[in-house]
Each structure stands twice: as C-alpha cells, then as structure tokens.
Amino acid sequence: MGISPLDTQTSTQKIIVRLAQNPAEIAAAQHLRYKVFYEEYAAIPSPEMSRQRRDFDLFDDITDHLIVIDESIADPLQKIVGTYRLLRREVAERHKTSFYTSHEYDIAPLLKSGATLLELGRSCVLAEYRTRPVLQLLWKGITDYMLDHNIGLMFGCASLPGTDIQALSLQLAYLYHYHLAPEKLRPRALKGRLIDMNLHPKEEINAKAVFSSLPPLIKGYLRLGADIGDGAVIDNQFNTTDICIVLRMEQVTARYRKFYARKVNRDIPGPEDSASDSALLAAAGGGG
C-alpha cells in the first residue's frame, strides 16, 4: 500500500497520515469512531460495541483504514485522532460482499459506469483536530491512495446531523437543486427509505448561506466537485440524515487538482488526460 506518510508540524504536535499497519491500529481507529459517533453525536451502540467502546462491523475486516496520528501522544489508543475507511471494488468482489452504501442506495449506475470504484466511509476526526491543515492532510492521504490504485470514481454516504427533515430541509433542497449527479451516474435511495430532497423551490434558496451551514466534510466534497445522489436516508442508529456523495476524478476542480498534486508531488489526471475519463463523461451524458 503505497501511501507515504505525510506530515504537518505545529509548535505542539506532529501529525502524520498513513494506512493502518496492524490490528492494534485498526482497533484504535474503531475506538476513535466510537468516541465521535456514539459519545459526541449520540449514535446508538450495540451492547458489544458499548462493552468494547469500539465501532465495528464486518466491513472493517476487508477495508483499508487511513489514519491520522498525533505522534506527540504516547498512548497508542489515543494517538489516532482521525480515520477514513476505504473499500475498493476489486476487494469487495474478491470477498463476495456488497458496499456499505448499497444498504441505503441503489448504486447500480456506479457499478455500470466502467470506472474504477472506491467507497469512502466511517470518516471522523476528533473535535480538537478538525482544522483545515489536518483535514487537508487527510485528503492528501486519500489523493495518494486514489493515484496508487488508479481510482476513477469515489462514492459513499455523508451525513447531516440529526433526523429532523424539516430542520434540514433547506440544506437538502440546496443539494438537490445545485449538486444532483448526472442521471446516468445517480444513485437513488432505496424504496421505502427515500426522503425527497426537493423540499423548497430553487428560487427560495440563498445558496451561499445554505452552503456555509453544511457540515465541513460535505462542504469539502462539494468544493472538490462532488455530486449528490437522489434522495436522503435517515439513519436512526447514527442519528443522522445521509446523502450519497459521487466524486469523479475528472470532475475534481482544477484548483484543487493542482493544489493536491503539489502536496503529493504527483500528477492528478483531469478530463483531458485519459480516454477512460472521456468514456465516463459520455456515459454520464456530459453533465455534472
């Protein structure tokens, strides 16, 4: 796994980002997920999760785990301060399993796209580390991983806090009107779980103000050029309302493509750089 450790230095801490290298580091990442999801955001753990103070499921055994490490902390259980779970299509197929996202969305359009797929999930960063430098460092690690594995399209569930659709209606409507994925690459929430996102007319939405109110992770995806699937899904266990993110590599905005290319010292392909990108755009009807 070719991610090189990337680091940032402040006066008090040294942060690096790399893939977890052993079961103990994965367990520490699961412990962090428990602290963020269950203790901070009031998700509902199973009795075994509560006993172990870890968030875990069967996907953890087959995924790569990108971790953010504060090397100034000696305790190995506490030094992992951020994580992302990464599942490539070839790995899911080798283990004869689905993607986590398919439990909430019909992702058939993505599976038929011909792109090399990567599912992102279980992302979290400890509250005091949710700073722009740390989040950028995390994305640099993801960028390196994508380039290592020739990823053409990333997707996954991202969350708005809470399950009160009325309170989230402007955010959902903004995402629907301004960021809906092209029809041929548009996941759709599963029947019986779909929450309509078209809750306000476009002309009623102050796009700048609503964008500013979105969670930082979702704003980050949108700045990169991500699209959104059709329909939101309530996740009662995690006390969230989920949306489906679709991010095609060739849709990553030129500004961010150049920024992260400099950071990882590697070229990031744009739409002009490969025939497979052109084919994907054609399949998507050129939209997005």
Concise structural overview:
The chain is of the alpha+beta class. The protein has ten helices and eleven strands. The strands form two sheets. Strands 1, 2, 3, 4, 6, 7, 9, 10 and 11 form a nine-stranded mixed β-sheet that branches.
Describe what this molecule looks like in 3D.
- α6 (165-179) crosses α7 (207-213).
- Helices cover 35% and strands 22% of the residues.
- The protein is of the alpha+beta class.
- It has a domain at 84-283.
- The chain is built from 10 helices and 11 strands.
- The two termini are 31 Å apart.
- Strands 1, 2, 3, 4, 6, 7, 9, 10 and 11 form a 9-stranded mixed beta sheet that branches. Strands 5-8 form a two-stranded antiparallel ribbon.
